[in-house]
């Protein structure tokens, strides 16, 4: 009987001790894991302000609710995939797995993708390589035994869809902002969207999006069914957005109550029979520790008073076996702390070992004691202390991890705040510098005006004093001098005021000049600058405006010179045409008929069309590439080509030569005649009229030219 009672007592005692140590924590809490991802700092599109803050808040919510949380902030492609792979392993060993994602998402041809921060997505082909399929994220939670929940705050207006090229040839390859409808493939799975499929969600103006704000408020209410929690989220989001955004949940669960955080356990008061049974069990064990555990469980009542009496009797080493003192009182044996339980001998070595470890915080020493004395009732207390120490170690580790994560978040926040503060300080410094400059100019003008006023007052005072002390003439002279100085002072004050006004005008006109100067490539830049030159009054800017106008004129002249048929291009073309023998006129920059004829000859020789003659830079460059004569030499009538020049034709001069020879012969004959005859001939010539001109005509050789008529006497 005693041998059979020992194991029973050990088991029941262990249950009582575990109940006392657990302090109200559920015996079989489900293991719950969560992965929280927030992507804000996108590298190729504008950044999102809220997802990283949303993810931090959701991660803290799950951690405070007892989840083992994997937190991923601003994940690139590789980090995102590694986090999913790690979470798959965690979910395989869990009962409940929850995934939360905040950032950009996109649907391409019916496939949903989540976008890492380093994705570029230049075309729809890149999504398979640079983005994460939603199906992969959902399947990473399939290993959870009881419940799987995926929460997606990724339905924002997506800038990737605007810039993405559509390279797929499939007609149905459409690209849509946000995510499309999805149905879970496994049971006991819910997928919650921030907005209904095909619509977009608001990012919000506060610290969190409207969807995440409602999630933080309702999702982890202890004992609240998750379907009812998502219903509350829907109602609050629609109210916050004026019914513009409607969250939606896909999937279904069974008929029981399913909550992410269990309802707090309700402690039921033990019945009198249960207390009596526990009292009898502890009485059989008989150790001081067993009675202390009993009192920790039942702090008040009749049996609690008996247990205190038993502890007092053990302290006083009262002999056991006393008879009951009254009806209904149960007799128990008073056992010394070193006395073994019935049916078991306790060695002195065990007692010594227990004294060494009973108050120890060394888990290894306590486990060694349990291993050496597995059947000892003290092993129950040792095991309870081990579990308590392990629980304390876990809580300490959780606190340390929470502190590290909080420190990391604080460091990141401090970094962002420092960058923002730096930018704000730079802007403040610039603003203060501008204000100081303006104040300085204002102070200088004010000082000059005050100085002028002081001078005027001093002059007036002197004038008044002189008027009192000197004669009227001297007073008049002093007054004249005083008035002169007053006028000078007034002039100085007016000049100072005008200088201040002029400085303001100069600043405005400087801004106008800088704006026009930055748009010098505009067609109207020269005209705008001329208009500014007419209206400008700031003397220091006038030379700058004049230089800018000269520069713009030079640039306009260069552009005009490069225009087709410009005088410069025509003159260059004429020079080249004359060089290659196609034009005989002098270059004058006018595209007249001789130049057009020369261009036509050149283009005909080159085998190009001459229907639309236009002098361009390309044509001038082509003419410059020609070497030597290109067009054949054309001579005038009566000339022949010899080399690169035209010379007079010899046949044209033959009639004149013959006439000259005939006259020479006649002169010779006349010279040989007798003088008498010569005299008679002279007389006859005097009596006759003037000799008639001899006409001699010769025709040019074949060639179709007009006949030459030579006249001789």
TrEMBL record:
Basic and acidic residues bias spans: 421-471, 480-496, 650-664, 677-693
A Pfam family recorded for this sequence: Peptidase_C14
Entry-linked Gene3D superfamilies: 3.40.50.1460
Every Caspase family p20 domain range: 30-159
One GO biological process term: proteolysis
Region entry Disordered, spans: 317-348, 419-496, 650-713
Molecular function GO terms recorded: cysteine-type endopeptidase activity
Listed SUPFAM superfamilies: Caspase-like (SSF52129)
PANTHER family named among the record's database cross-references: MUCOSA ASSOCIATED LYMPHOID TISSUE LYMPHOMA TRANSLOCATION PROTEIN 1/PARACASPASE, MUCOSA-ASSOCIATED LYMPHOID TISSUE LYMPHOMA TRANSLOCATION PROTEIN 1
Listed name of the protein: Peptidase C14, caspase catalytic subunit p20
Organism, as annotated: Rhodopseudomonas palustris (strain HaA2)
């Amino acid at each position: 009987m005693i041998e059979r009672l020992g194991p029973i007592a050990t088991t029941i005692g262990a249950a009582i001790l575990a109940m006392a140590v657990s302090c109200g924590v559920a015996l079989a809490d489900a293991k719950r894991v969560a992965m929280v991802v927030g992507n804000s700092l996108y590298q190729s599109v504008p950044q999102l302000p809220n997802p990283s803050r949303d993810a931090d808040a959701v991660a803290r919510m799950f951690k405070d609710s007892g989840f083992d949380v994997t937190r991923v902030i601003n994940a690139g492609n590789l980090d995102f995939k590694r986090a999913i792979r790690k979470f798959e392993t965690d979910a395989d060993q869990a009962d409940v797995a929850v995934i939360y994602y905040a950032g950009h998402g996109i649907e391409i041809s019916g496939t949903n993708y989540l976008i890492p921060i380093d994705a570029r997505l230049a075309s729809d082909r890149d999504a398979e390589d640079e983005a994460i399929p939603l199906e992969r994220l959902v399947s990473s939670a399939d290993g959870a035994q009881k419940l799987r929940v995926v929460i997606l705050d990724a339905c924002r207006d997506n800038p990737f869809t605007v810039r993405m090229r559509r390279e797929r040839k499939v007609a149905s390859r459409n690209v849509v902002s946000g995510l499309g409808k999805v149905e879970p493939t496994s049971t006991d799975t819910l997928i919650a969207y921030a907005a209904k499929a095909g619509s977009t969600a608001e990012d919000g103006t506060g610290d969190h999006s409207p969807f995440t704000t409602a999630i933080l408020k309702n999702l982890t209410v202890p004992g609240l069914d998750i379907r009812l929690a998502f219903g509350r989220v829907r109602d609050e989001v629609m109210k916050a957005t004026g019914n513009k955004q409607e969250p939606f949940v896909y999937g279904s669960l069974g008929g029981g109550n399913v909550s992410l955080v269990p309802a707090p356990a309700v402690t039921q008061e033990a019945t009198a029979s249960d207390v009596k049974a526990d009292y009898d069990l502890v009485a059989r064990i008989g150790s001081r520790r067993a009675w202390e555990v009993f009192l920790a469980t039942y702090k008040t009542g009749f049996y609690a008073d008996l247990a205190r009496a038993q502890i007092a009797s053990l302290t006083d080493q009262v002999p056991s076996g006393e008879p009951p003192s009254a009806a209904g009182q149960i007799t128990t044996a008073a056992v010394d702390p070193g006395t073994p339980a019935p049916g078991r001998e306790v060695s002195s070595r065990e007692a010594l070992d227990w004294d060494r470890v009973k108050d120890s915080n060394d888990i290894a020493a306590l486990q060694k004691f349990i291993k050496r004395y597995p059947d000892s009732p003290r092993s129950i207390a040792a095991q309870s202390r081990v579990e308590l120490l392990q629980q304390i170690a876990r809580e300490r580790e959780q606190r340390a991890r929470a502190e590290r994560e909080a420190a990391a978040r604080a460091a990141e926040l401090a970094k962002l705040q420092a960058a923002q503060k730096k930018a704000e300080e730079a802007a403040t410094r610039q603003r203060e510098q501008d204000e100081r400059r303006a104040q300085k100019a204002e102070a200088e003008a004010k000082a000059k005006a005050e100085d002028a006023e002081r001078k005027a007052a001093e002059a007036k005072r002197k004038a008044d004093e002189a008027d009192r002390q000197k004669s009227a003439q001297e007073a008049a002279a002093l007054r004249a001098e005083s008035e002169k100085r007053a006028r000078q002072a007034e002039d100085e004050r007016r000049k100072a005021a005008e200088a201040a006004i002029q400085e303001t005008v100069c600043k405005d006109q400087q801004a106008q000049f800088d704006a026009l100067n930055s748009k010098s490539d505009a067609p109207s830049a020269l005209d705008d600058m001329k208009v500014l030159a007419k209206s400008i009054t700031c003397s220091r800017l006038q030379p700058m405006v004049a230089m800018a106008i000269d520069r713009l004129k030079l640039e306009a002249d260069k552009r005009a010179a490069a225009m087709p048929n410009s005088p410069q291009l025509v003159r260059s073309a004429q020079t080249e045409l004359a060089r290659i023998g196609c034009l005989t006129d002098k270059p004058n920059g006018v595209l007249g008929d001789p130049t057009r004829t020369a261009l036509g000859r050149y283009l005909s020789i080159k085998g190009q069309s001459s229907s639309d003659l236009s002098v361009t830079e390309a044509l001038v460059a082509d003419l410059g590439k020609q070497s030597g004569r290109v067009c054949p030499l054309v001579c005038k009538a009566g000339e022949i080509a010899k080399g690169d020049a035209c010379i007079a034709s010899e046949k044209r001069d033959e009639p004149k030569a013959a006439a000259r020879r005939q006259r020479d012969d006649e002169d010779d004959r006349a010279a040989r005649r007798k003088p008498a005859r010569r005299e008679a001939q002279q007389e006859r010539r005097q009596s006759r009229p003037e000799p008639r001109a001899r006409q001699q005509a010769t025709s040019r050789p074949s060639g179709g030219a007009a006949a030459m008529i030579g006249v001789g006497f």
